[in-house]
Amino acid sequence: MHQLLFAGLSLVIACSTDATPKNKPVATPVVEEKKTIARAPAPEDALPATTAAPTFRSVVAGNNHSCGITESGDLYCWGRNDQGELGDSGTTERTLPSEVGGGLKWRTVSAGRAHSCGITSDGATYCWGASLAGQLGSDTLGTLSAPYRMPNAPSFVKITSGNDHTCAITTDGKMFCWGENLHGELGASVFGKFSPVLQVAPQLTWARVSAGPHSTCGITTEGKLYCWGLDDAGGIGVEAADACELDGEPAQCALPLRQPVDSLRFTSVATGVTHTCAITGDSLLYCWGANDRGQLGSGFREPLAPTPVVGQERWIAVSAGKGFTCAITRAGIAECWGADDDGQLAGRAADVTIPQPVTGSVRFTAISSGTAHTCALSTDHLVYCWGSNGNGQLGTGAHKRSFEPEKLMFAADNNP
């Protein structure tokens, strides 16, 4: 693998400043009728003895695995593990949490398709799992099933993982990315695979970053939103692939409906498979991109430029999966919309095109969605997950999917 390091950014995105659909007829938002669906019986699991999990301070969902950090700083992962993405030095699937890097204390963690990365309390960056594209920051090809400390890495405070790339922000607001760059997801116009870190737009100071499968979005300290990488169905805010280059810098993207470019400031962003959502400084939620399953929350199914989610809610957190979106209101209520063929919406049995509360009365503070499952942190610091569970990514000790939030469990002999 070539050792290449770039100081600048030359891939850029361009977006229209007026995203209003022209002469669009007014229609009644569609909420599909709830219906009974055939649920295939789950295979009989030999259920392990379980006990309640400890309290957590964060949780993230990868494609088919999940990870969380306890309030004491210990890191646990569960779910799919054929590429070592759980970091427990093996490749055995886990339906209950397994500790990662025993003895280390963790500040933050991210989960991608088949790899994970975390930052310890002393600022060291570790990655583990699939390593075919340099996404672990290592030249080792294959898999690394235990945490690998990135050598000479800057001091990072935030980190995010896509399918095969990783991005992180330093203490002074610089962004670096590494791994696959076949679609420009690293923010560089030289395409390939890179294990050295590449600095993204060094002239900007970054506050937030979110990696999708093949794209990335970031928010500057001024609240300006930029996206780059694969523009599949307008997910990064542009309508044509030939509009994705402009004078060697990332183009400001995801311009809100009928708003001038400098009128809105964003505080968080979530990058899904073919759509993206972001929350403004006044807690409004906008989504754009593919909308075939109603994942934009607009009440329609047409693909759209940045559009406000239907309703009067104010939002504190958002996550984007494959064809669905989940977010948390100021009142702590988790609401989801879009695809629901595997329990993604936690309480419905059909796709919906506007936000719908998940089943139950639990209140949440943070949320993260994978391919077809979601995990969220409750106000009392417990982890709940719902949706697809074919690899044990819900952490219940079984493989049965869930149509309501299920509390994370621990093996009876593994509770700290």
Which strand order spans the largest sheet, edge to edge or round the barrel?
2-3-4-5
CATH homologous superfamily - what is it?
Answer: Regulator of chromosome condensation 1/beta-lactamase-inhibitor protein II
Number of separate helices: 0
Low-pLDDT regions: 1-44, 246-261
Task: Give me the Rg, rounded.
Answer: 20 Å
- The overall strand count is 29
What is the makeup of the main sheet?
Answer: 4 strands, antiparallel
Fold and architecture overview:
It is built from no helices and 29 strands. It is mostly beta strands. The chain has one domain (50-411): Methylamine Dehydrogenase, Chain H (7 Propeller), CATH 2.130.10. Strands 2-3-4-5 form a 4-stranded antiparallel sheet, with no helix packed on it. The N and C termini lie far apart (41 Å).
Put the structure in a nutshell.
By secondary structure, this protein is an all-beta fold. Helix content is 0%, strand content 40%.
List keywords for this structure.
four-stranded antiparallel sheet; mainly beta; disordered N terminus; 416 residues; globular; Methylamine Dehydrogenase, Chain H
Secondary structure topology:
Elements: E1 50-52, E2 56-61, E3 65-70, E4 75-79, E5 94-100, E6 106-111, E7 115-120, E8 125-130, E9 143-149, E10 156-161, E11 165-170, E12 175-180, E13 193-200, E14 206-211, E15 215-220, E16 225-229, E17 266-271, E18 275-280, E19 285-289, E20 304-308, E21 315-320, E22 324-329, E23 334-338, E24 352-357, E25 364-369, E26 373-378, E27 383-387, E28 402-407, E29 409-411
Antiparallel strand pairs: 1-29, 2-3, 3-4, 4-5, 6-7, 7-8, 8-9, 10-11, 11-12, 12-13, 14-15, 15-16, 17-18, 18-19, 19-20, 21-22, 22-23, 23-24, 25-26, 26-27, 27-28
